[in-house]
Amino acid sequence: MALTPFGKAMRKLRIDRDLLLKDTADALNVSSAFLSSVESGRKSIPNGWEELLAKHLRLERIEAMELSNSITKTLREVRIPFGVGTTDFAKQVAAGLARNYGDLDQKQLEEIRAILERRRKL
Fold this sequence. Notes:
elongated, 2 domains, about 120 residues, 434 Repressor (Amino-terminal Domain)
């Protein structure tokens, strides 16, 4: 069974820290079988795992960034949580992006990313 980028990163982190799959599964409050399924891509990465793993594994900043990148490379689906104050317009924009995502070209994706990067710097 092939590991996802997340699975490869997790295995490396566990090996570096002499941890068993079960040790990490216990820290995440899941079974070893479930964690193995996530690492191999049979199950989706649950929300909140990035923070839990960073804390459990005591990740340095660079390791946390590498884990985050591995999660991004592994994701097949992204959910956008709408808070209580989310406007109908914001919901329409999010839905429109989801519907049209597959048709966006590289330049358009770069424009969206630039907007997001500017927001992050605020």
